[in-house]
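Give me structure tokens for this 65-residue protein.
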Amino acid sequence: MGRTRFSSIASWIHTEIRGWTLADRISDAQYELLAREAEVALRQFVADGRVSFDARAHIALAAKV
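Here you go.
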């Protein structure tokens, strides 16, 4: 477990949607709706304008041999 942090809900949503595989599966209109709704639905994770919550992470390291 680790702690993830974002500067805002908008930043969190952008990273999760536009920064991953969902970017090609959601229209601009759908994204805008999601972003608006997320500001309300996810406000429990906001403190001082920033977002923070516990999350699992997998870290992989590779080396060329």
